[in-house]
Design goal:
It comes from Caballeronia udeis. The chain contains eleven helices and 19 strands. It has 430 residues and is α+β, with helices and mostly antiparallel strands. The chain binds FE2/S2 (inorganic) cluster and fe (ii) ion (FE2).
Length: 430
């Protein structure tokens, strides 16, 4: 939809990448965001340490991806590579994908099944729980070389993370005394989380993976920004999925304000009834657009929820997507300040009929890296990153619904983004 010209000057100017001690939050407080949160290498390093490796529960996998003992998946906590493994006794383990010997990222396959993990470099082997079990030539050869007598395998296992699950969703943390996942997510977020993850077994339908040339926080902000949804996305607006004036909600958790649910109830008719005065504000509303295949927007009511669409942002690395009957998660993997990787997993339920699965897959075209509703966000965030990274101006404005921080009653609000930055500033010391 947009032509992209050759990018000139990809390097970040030094003014946008100052040392952390020179960074001061703007005097506007939560009514402004300084560009350096998106561009500074130092800020990024502190985020990895204090957020992703700090006291947070990070999404790592769905249980349905590793149903049997010996199943494993290569995953990430922030940018840190980990392995999610199911042991012989059915328990789930998450450990760093870094050999305890010389540091090789030993697990090379996205997913698989095995009875042990063997590092390709010097073949140290680990059991399914991440314990070191074997070292070739541990005692040397002909009484020469080898490990010292007092070397104990128990002291040289893989670095293990704390693990928890909620209805088939696996989270891990570098912090071992984390609060229970239910307390972390809070009741207001669990309500819609549990509507999707309701205890029924999931069936994995497929994966996407893409890189976005933007800071990882922008993706959270995008899904805490209902304002853009009614303006940027022609598809949403024309087909009545989210229109200013529809019944909708932008909820932020009241404990920390970092998780969110953007929810809306679709109009009953297939096409949106938009009044003339609203149309004037919505340049992406195109009169007379029709669908060739109307099954595409059929909503089969199957969830214990008043909403037809819920998009949940779960701090710091998970998006739960329920767009009518298409279900998926997006796993955010930060990749330096100016890039992030998005890992998508689309799913249904094990007891779905063939017809329901077809419907979910058909509707799945709304989402994904080039989905009818995903495409524009990717472009918009790229534009923002290019703008904040290469300009002289140093902050953006966050004033919609200005008195409010957290849950908003209106779609024309940035209150949920402010709640996220309130917490962020505390954790980051800004
Ligand atoms: Fe893995 Fe040496 S680095 S066995
Ligand atoms: Fe969007």
């Amino acid at each position: 939809m947009y032509s992209s010209e050759t990018v000139i000057g990809l390097g970040t100017p030094s003014v946008k990448n100052k040392p952390i001690e020179q960074l001061v939050w703007p005097e506007e407080g939560l009514h402004a965001i300084p560009d350096w949160v998106y561009t500074s290498d130092d800020v990024y390093a502190r985020e990895v340490e204090r957020i992703f490796q700090g006291p947070t529960w990070n999404f790592v996998a769905l249980e349905a991806e590793i149903p049997n003992s010996g199943d494993y998946k290569r995953s990430y906590v922030g940018p840190t590579p980990v392995v999610v493994s199911r042991a012989e006794d059915g328990s789930i383990h998450v450990f760093e994908n870094r050999c305890a010997h010389r540091g090789a990222e030993f697990c090379r396959h996205t997913r698989g099944n095995n009875t042990e993990f063997v590092c390709p470099y010097h073949q140290w082997s680990y059991d399914l729980k991440g314990n070191l079990q074997g070292i070739p030539f541990k005692r040397g050869v002909n009484k020469l070389g080898g490990m010292p007598r007092d070397f104990r395998n128990e002291d040289h296992g893989l670095k293990k993370l704390a693990v928890t699950t909620r209805n088939g969703v696996i989270f891990a943390s570098f912090t071992h005394d984390m609060e229970p996942i239910e307390d972390y997510l809070t009741p207001e977020i669990l309500k819609d989380f549990d509507a999707v993850f309701n205890g029924k077994k999931l069936r994995i339908l497929g994966f996407y993976k893409n890189e976005l040339p933007c800071n990882w926080k922008m993706y959270h902000e995008n899904l805490k920004d209902p304002y853009h949804a009614t303006l940027l996305h022609s598809f949403l607006v024309v087909f009545g999925l989210l229109v200013a004036g529809n019944r909708s909600a932008m909820v932020a958790d009241s404990k920390r304000g970092i998780h969110g649910t953007m929810a809306s109830a679709k109009s009953d008719s297939l096409y949106a009834a938009v009044d003339a005065d609203k149309k004037k504000e919505m340049r992406s509303f195109h009169e007379g657009m029709v669908l060739k295949d109307e099954r595409f927007l059929e909503y089969v009511k199957e969830f214990d929820s008043e909403w037809s669409v819920t998009m949940q942002t779960i701090w710091p690395n998970l998006i739960v997507q329920r767009e009518m009957n298409t279900l998926g998660i997006r796993h955010i993997v930060p990749n330096g300040p100016n890039s992030m990787i998005m890992l998508w997993t689309m799913f249904g339920y094990e007891d779905d009929t063939e017809e329901t699965t077809r419907h979910r897959l058909r509707q799945g075209n709304l989402m994904g890296p080039s989905g009818f509703l995903g495409l524009e966000d990717n472009e918009a965030m790229k534009f923002v990153q290019e703008g904040v990274r290469r300009s002289v101006t140093d902050r953006s404005v966050l004033k919609l619904d200005s008195e409010n921080i957290g849950t908003a009653d209106s779609l024309i609000s940035e209150a949920a983004i402010r709640a996220m930055y309130k917490h962020y500033r505390e954790v980051m010391g800004f």
